[in-house]
Amino acid sequence: DNPFFAGDLNENRAKVYQYGFRNPFRFTINRDSGDIFIGDVGWSAWEEINSAEAGANFGWPYYEGASGTNSRTTGYQDLPEADSFYASGAVATPAIYALNHAATGINAIVMGDLYTGSQYPSEYQGDLFFNDLGQGIVRNLSFDAQGNVASVNTFTVGANVVVQIKQGPDGYLYFVDLDDGRVGKWVFSQGSSANSSTSPFSQDSGQDTSDTVYPTLEANSPAPDFQKADVNGDNYLTAIDALIIANYLNTETHERSPEYAWQRLDINGDSAVTPLDALLVINRLNAHTDTHPILATVDPKQLERDASEIERGDAWLDDVSLGVFQNRGLKLPFAQ
């Protein structure tokens, strides 16, 4: 499908699929259609969502924004190279949706995921979720039957420095909060609606809570079995236990190690292994009180030894684990 591929995989052109981006930050793929949606962090005026066929040129640096139309980039448009580009008749594909800095206050877009789960109301089915990094506004973009942008609404607020949004296998949207070192999921409060003036999400009580956007457990979740949290059986609760769960989720079923049966990794006892199980281990590590019964104890020296093992290139858990170490004031044996 790549028009730049001419038969030689080692050619530089063969490694290009689309171009004309400034600073793309995360993308997601519609598994049914194969469409790619890319969040492109802008320069002086616009944050873009780009989606088009293979080989598309999205116009940077000569265009930035806007929604469905190209806007010439201030600071570049008067350069000789820009004049040549405009005069060439080259096609630049505009963003399917763009937010203007001055009009909305947005400063950086974080592309999230397409929602295909069943935990949220049907109005969110097939919507594209993305975050305004600085202001913490998560929006959902809806499409019409032809795949065109039909509407954009605010999903929730308070998600400042949430750098990743992904749908989990349980049908919830999970987030990574880089600033606060947290991983969580969004859960609808009882009686709330998408049109509510307050945040439609609950942390753990099942009650309507205004602007609460860091849920970890739904109200009716089974009580976590923290005696199982020592996944690797070394008699210590460490970040490695959470890493084992994350690696299990990220590994194809037929390649999973038989050493870790799913029952052993199901920390909260809901008969499924989900990112929430890893989150429960991380939250227990970050806790400074013994509010949950647990057989294993946290050994700071073991945590320091585990740091070298955690440096495995798994960016998601590296960030989470780093927060565990920093919260405990430990000196890391590797550079970050």
Order of helices and strands: EEEHEHEEEEEEEHHHHH
- Our estimate of the beta-strand percent is 15-25%
Mean pLDDT: 75
Measured distance between first and last alpha carbons: 38 Å
Say how many strands there are. 11
Most strands sheet:
4 strands, antiparallel
Number of helices: 7
Low-confidence residue ranges: 191-222, 288-336
| Alpha-carbon Rg, integer | 22 Å
Write structural notes for this entry.
This protein has helices at about 80-90, 100-105, 240-250, 260-265, 275-285, 300-310, 315-325; strands spanning about 25-30, 35-40, 45-50, 95-100, 110-115, 130, 135-145, 150-155, 160-165, 175, 180-185. It has about 325 residues and is of the alpha+beta class. The protein starts with about 25 loop residues before the first strand and ends in a 9-residue tail after the last helix.
Keyphrases for this structure?
single chain, 336 residues, alpha+beta, four-stranded antiparallel beta sheet, globular
Summarize this, please?
With about 325 residues, this protein is of the alpha+beta class. About 20% of the residues lie in helices and about 20% in strands.
Element layout with pairings:
Layout: E1 24-29, E2 36-40, E3 46-50, H1 80-88, E4 97-100, H2 101-104, E5 109-114, E6 128-132, E7 137-143, E8 149-156, E9 162-167, E10 173-177, E11 182-185, H3 239-249, H4 262-265, H5 275-286, H6 300-310, H7 315-327
Antiparallel strand pairs: 1-2, 2-3, 3-4, 5-6, 6-7, 7-8, 9-10, 10-11
